[in-house]
Amino acid sequence: MGKLTCLAILSTLFHSSVAQPFCGFFVSRAGTDLFNQASKVVMVRDENKTVLTLSNDYQGELKEFAIVTPVPEVLEKYQIHVANNNIIDHLDKYTAPRLVEYNDRNPCEPVYLEKAFSSGAGTRRMLSKSKSRSKKLGVTIEAEYTIGEYDIIILSAKESSGLITWLKENKYKLPHGAEDVVGSYLKKGMKFFLAKVNLKEQNKLGFKFLRPLQMAYSSNKFMLPIRLGMLNAKKTQDLFVFALTRKGRVETTNYRTKKLPSNLELPTYIKDEFSTFYKDMFSHQVQEDQMKSVWLEYAWDMNWCDPCAADPLKNSELKELGVFWLKDDRKEKNQKRRILPSPPFPGKQKNVFVTRLHLRYNANNFPDDLQFQVTSDRQNFQGRYILRNKWTGSDQCEMATRYRKELPKQVAKEAQNLHDITGWDLKKIHAKLEFKPAKENNKDKWWKKLWN
Question: Do 433 and 286 meet the contact criterion of CB atoms below 8 Å apart?
Fold first, then answer.
């Protein structure tokens, strides 16, 4: 747990003491590992240049694993790279929705103003048919590589039927309906990137798990193809997109981008149920939205955080993810966590803005690939949920009297917030509360039962 400083606002002395400033600490975070059938994608984008990192949640025999994804151009060998999972995990932790816990201070104590600055041979073995057969099917093998533990082929094709036949003859298992989707990509002039695991190469390298694949390319279209993946899905899937740009926040253009409910005060018992809470909250929001939107979970300058769910990524990690505009800093030392007031000090920025998007989708609700745009919006946003440990002291003063008087209303509001964003039963929420919420006064609401 990392301690947080806080900025005490002097003007709060003239409002209800329940709303007075309080200091706190980071409690927990909700990462991508909470969700089954979840994939992670990192997209670095600047002008027309994209570096795409694919991290898969594949489970099963590695000899059965294969990636087939459309790409806008024939990629040369040095446009393809194998990345490290731990960097994506770090990015996940840094951007994860977070639960923060604060302690209400003694209302009888004075409030002081504080400042917080605080080789090719392996690939050829993939081909069960000769190149003459490929030509007959209208399929061209544009490039073949072995990179790390992956055998990679890049194909172009004249017609989807020929490409589908080639894929099946070469032991690529394709789901029903693939031909129409493949055909739509071919009409757009796209190529196909194919990757299989080379078990011998993987054994030499000593890896027991699949590392993410990266590809760098230029295209005026900033998009992510998801339709082929949906054909394999038996049910809805969760997708996390981490977008890194020089300019600002990333949003979808063909689907609505919505912010998740955030900065709400919730009952303190959620501390022990944060995973359940966050999954239920996200599912409830998706259901209420009828699975029509992409959800914004985090948008922030990479140079700082407040509160920090994890340290910001180092320059070396960002460059490994493909952030190509960073200056070469060979003297980079371990970064220490910095919690800065907004905006951060000028001249100290990495010039990298990160956006975290969360999508739950299926073929019916998301029939098209995701189209993105980079905006100039650098406004900070984070999924942040607040717990307030109530003051239970016996000190007597006017502020303490006001605090105790307002406390039942505060507890009731926290319970209502939890009900509103999760759909949980309000009576069950009340039963778990440490303090009892204020009872509703119906005497003045004579009209409440008029037509009920």
Answer: no
Does the pTM exceed 0.85?
Answer: no
In the chain, which stretches have pLDDT less than 50?
1-24, 113-129, 330-347
pLDDT one-digit tens code per residue, 154-201? 999 998 888 888 888 887 877 777 888 888 999 999 999 998 888 888
Q: Which tokens hold the place of 433?
A: 């509360």
Check: CB of residue 6 under 8 Å from CB of residue 247. Answer: no
